[in-house]
Amino acid sequence: HLIFAPRAVLHYVVAHELAHLRFRSHRTEFWEFLASIMPKMDASKVWLDRHGSNLSDAFLQGAAQIEARHG
Prior knowledge:
Blueprint (H helix, E strand, L loop, with lengths): L6 H13 L8 H10 L3 H11 L6 H13 L1
Helix pairs in contact: 1-3
């Protein structure tokens, strides 16, 4: 459901996963490296921490139900 997140958050997630190619864990070195390649990551990380569990395609399911009824 990340497609529903802001673009900056998507960039953060990609950078985060790419950083795992160099560092497997979330130790200090990982976060330092990630900050070095994405200096403005803090806002995206905070947004994802706050809203990530609420990302949903539920509105698409609702639209499909409406379309089925009004076909």
